[in-house]
Amino acid sequence: MSANASSATVSGPPNTTALPLKTQLRRAERLKKLKYGALIAPLALFLLLTFLWPIGALLMRSVENPEVPEALPQTLHALAGWDRQALPGDAVFAALVADLTENKGSRTLAVAAKRLNMEEPGFRSLFMNSARKMPLEPGVAPRQALLEMDPQWGELATWQLIARNGRAYTDYFLLAALDMYRDGAGDITQADPLSSIFVDIFARTFWMSLIVTIWCLALGYPVAYLLATQSSRVSNLLMIFVLLPFWTSILVRVAAWIVLLQQGGLINMGLISLGIIDQPLQLVFNRIGVYIAMVHILLPFMILPLYSVMKGISPTYLRAAVSLGCPPFRSYWKVYFPMTVPGVAAGGLLVFIIAMGYYITPALLGSPKEQMASYFVAFYTNETTNWGMAAALSAVLLVATMILYFVYNRLVGSASSGAKPR
Amino acid sequence: MIPAYASLPERIWYYVFRIGCGLILLFLVIPILVIIPLSFNSDSFLIYPMSGFSLRWYEEFFFSDTWIHALKNSLIVAPFATLLAMVFGTLASIGLTRVDFPGKALVTAILISPMVVPVVIVGVATYLVFAPIGLSGSYLGLILVHAALGVPFVVTTVSATLQGFDYNLVRAAASLGANPLTAFFRVTLPLVAPGVISGGLFAFGISFDEVVVTLFLASPEQTTLPRQMFSGIRENISPAIAAVATILTLFAVLMLLALEWLRGRSERLRSGG
Fold this sequence. Notes:
The complex is a heterodimer of chains A (422) and B (273).
Chain A: H1 2-10, H2 21-61, H3 67-71, H4 73-79, H5 90-103, H6 107-119, H7 123-132, H8 142-149, H9 156-164, H10 172-177, E1 180-182, E2 188-190, H11 198-229, H12 232-247, H13 250-261, H14 266-273, H15 287-311, H16 316-323, H17 328-356, H18 360-365, H19 373-382, H20 387-412
Antiparallel strand pairs in A: 1-2
Chain B: H1 8-38, H2 56-62, H3 65-98, H4 104-112, H5 119-130, H6 139-163, H7 168-175, H8 180-208, H9 212-217, H10 225-235, H11 239-270
Helix pairs in contact in B: 1-11, 2-11, 3-6, 3-8, 3-10, 6-8, 7-8, 8-11
């Protein structure tokens, strides 16, 4: 801090050998920067190891494709320079037989077969059955032998698929996450609508987040306004209604909504006893239940930033507008609302960003039709151990989140965050 | 208050607005309150009307090995994660508020990013990287990732507190002969303590309520309270869940009270009272 600069300057009368004051100041300034920069370093290093590195490694998984090169090195070497227009030559068949013989029964081959099976069902058995018949009798021509084992070896598409996966990196998973694939010639093609699922899932994730954000805004705006315009005693009291759910475990709230919304729950009972319905409504394990619980969980994230913006708006603006003859509702819309737009944007983006990554609430309160992108990341990790697909879906979700986060940061400024109460 | 000259539509709007806001505020708290009485139900159904009063579900919680084990795990993981997040987060906040350097906005955005990255991605990614080095299925791995998730909350709260901090106080301490460490512990820390502790409470709350990373990273041995509750809700939602929910709600109330007290304290300090 300034201690360094002052100790240097008070150490004695200025003499000719001392550095000019300007240099000393600059040096002290640089030292200060270094010292305070060093305070950031431990956290930066910590996050690098526990957060950034894992995410980087996961994203790499979406393009890594080591399985086939590891299992079929000779085949790929022989395939180098192949034009992919006609069946490859005898040398390639011989190389494949050599690879299959070498890796017969190994994990490497099984993994590669599984990898190719992802793109073309049937490849696992093609590889495993052919490998089982290795080694060939001496003197048998490899090409002839393979074609006799399975006519699929005589198809151009088989070899195109192997060649396409010959490099250590692939765009297969990322394209699949966007419902696209490379055809035999290697051109990017739209998947046919029947097998397209991921674009729909991302659209659903986006749409559900949007609906939740709009509801949060519609419910949160008036409440934030009420809180911002009351005396601090009243508003502190009412704030408890916002902060208590904010601090209550998400699982408690999910459990509470199941209790309230179930067939024999309070809401259905109430509606029946009021004579509004005579059969219990299905309110949970469908879209309605997910929306209600998500709005309930995310509403404080909307109210708090809105409140902090509204708190800073002087009521005199509104009074001035009214005293100048503007009707009350019109002056709200023309004078007050525009001043709250930063809060609307901050709260809206925050809610939208958090909603996009939701997993627990749809998993516990929704049917399969309500599952969002996060669910499928978890699905490919847990159920099928397809790391490439899990990583590619993560990558798409992460890019969408980061774009919104960037916009949010621009609007709010990085130091202050909407998630902080008051 | 509503002015005497208000027109009829204005009066109607005044009441409609207030009733609407009241309903929204009730929407926020009623679900949490509704589940509490059910935890005292003598029946094993989570349905009103209750059949009788009983403490059997609390008994089930406190005498069940699974629940107590989960509670114990939460009480191991959350404090350590909080401590890590508090120390790293506070140091970084001081650094960030005191110097400007090119790319500072980017660095800050990265330090805050664990708050916005979908938590499933964090869970899958840390599992992928931690499993080969033996950190998955370990307390240490869980603590490290929970700490990373808590860091943004510490950084934002402490930075906000430091915005109003007068650095002349540190200069005064230095000029009176305090070395930087003494000045930090005797001057800076006591004044920003409310911010540091609020940030810590946030970090604790994040870890104490974290399910998704735990789902991926923890083995059954590290099952935490929310993780156990997640399987409870998924498999068989019984009043035992309501009992746990009641205990967790009570915990939330305590956190809220602690934060309110801290906020009041820091406001008094700032106004020089």
